Amino acid sequence: MTDEPSRPGLLPSRRFLLRTGAAAAALPLGFGSGGVRAWGPGPAVPFDPGSICRPAVAEAAAGPLKPIKLAWNATAVCTAAAPLAKERGIFAAHGLDVEFVNFGGSTEALLEAIATGKADAGIGMALRWLKPLEQGFDVKITAGLHGGCLRLLGAKSAGITDIAALKGKTIAISDHASPAKNFFALLLAKAGIDPETGVEWRQYPADLLNLAVEKGEAQALADSDPRTWIWLKDPKFTEVATNLSGEYADRTCCVVAMRGSLIRADRAAATALTRAVLEAGHRVHADPEDAARIFSGYGGRGSVEDLAAMLRSQHHGDRPVGADLKRQLVLYGDELKQVNVLKRSTDTTKFAERVYADVLS
Questions:
Q1: 223-261 in b/e burial notation, b at 16+ Cβ within 10 A?
Q2: pTM for the model
Q3: Could you tell me where the beta strands, DSSP code E, fall in 137-189?
Q4: What mean pLDDT, rounded, does the chain reach?
Q5: What 3-state DSSP class applies to 261?
Q6: Which residue windows are transmembrane per the record (predicted)?
Q7: Start-to-end Cα distance in the chain
Q8: Whole-number pLDDT of residue 307
């Protein structure tokens, strides 16, 4: 992967620096003055979180905070930026009083809640949201939050060690519209395996996917952290691929989105919320242990050590906005057309322009 400047002896690539600069431009003035790790695993350089938040919190406290309802899934570790922003005063620093609305159900219900004003914004997976957004929900994506968190695990006993070995096999999934199914269907298609006829996708309750493989009813499973990370600790499983594999190493996974009416009526609030979540994502990247402790307090599954390891394995240092994010949305759109998730007639460039809102410039 060419964009990993933290590897010993490598300098940052031009693309990484450009992307980092774009993300930094989306953050408040003065943010990032403390030391942080640039990318990937390894010890973070110590920094003082208070130096980032205290001046802004003091300023925000002088006036009333803007009430915002943020929809999220409290079981998804990839949304750890949300509770961190609340507990470390980042939302307040941006003049926001954020109330969480936990949606563990269907994405369509979450997006409908945002579109109809029951929630103002949400954090979720791009590959779960793009199909409903194609259908016309008045919800706009304003930023990418991180890459990673989807994993395809194979049974060692079945010899599933790469994508090619899945031909003719059964893959356990939690539902047929899941981001994991959508993403790994793309990898199957790229490997020359028809994702509709070349494998069988079999649905099970999310917490029982590993048991389906252990019983031999499936030879692989596709899902998201924290479940997949915890199951990977079982020596019966091997990691076949993730949504950071190969050409997807710099692709965002989770996104921040808001109701269109909020952006039109109160752009300042939309901007503040986007900046706050981006800043919190930076803090997750710089101090995953702190983020894990906070997320654990909100009911996150797994030990703090496991949760921190999950966060380090995800690319919370990569938060695309602007042209870079629109480029990624176009790529996802083109790929989802190939596996019959989006309509073949959809103009993905126009689609990306329609579903993305630049609230930072």
A1: bbbbbbbebeeeeebbebbbbbbeebbbbbbbbbbbbbe
A2: 0.80
A3: 139-146, 150-155, 170-173
A4: 84
A5: helix
A6: none
A7: 30
A8: 94
